TrEMBL record:
It is found in: Mitochondrion. Interacts with NFU1. Its main location: mitochondrion. GO terms for cellular component: mitochondrial matrix. Keywords: Mitochondrion, Signal. It comes from the Eukaryota. The keyword Signal applies. Belongs to the BolA/IbaG family. The gene is BOLA3. Transmembrane segments: none annotated. This is BolA-like protein 3. Acts as a mitochondrial iron-sulfur (Fe-S) cluster assembly factor that facilitates (Fe-S) cluster insertion into a subset of mitochondrial proteins. Probably acts together with NFU1. Residues 1-15 form the signal peptide.
Amino acid sequence: MAAWGPAAAAPLLRGIRWLPLHCVHRMFASQTEGELKVTQILKEKFPRATAIKVTDISGGCGAMYEIQIESEDFKEKRTVQQHQMVNQALKEEIKGMHGLRIFTSVPKH
């Protein structure tokens, strides 16, 4: 069976003229480079994290991300402190972003 990707989808999407090419690629890509980079940084900064999910919510251009992270590091910290920890971990990356949504939690045992 042939690989399915943007090239294979082109004939199917040819009639949809308003769909930018980067959006077509995004439909088939598992994670963008930016998502992978932010995920890797968070894994390094929060080694006890049990779940990390980074989603580029700007359509793939890397301007805005949604981050969901679950870690014991957040235990007994207020939400604002948890978010400050994530902001500090991504201090350099945030400089190039338009926005960031952060959702933090502590694992339930």
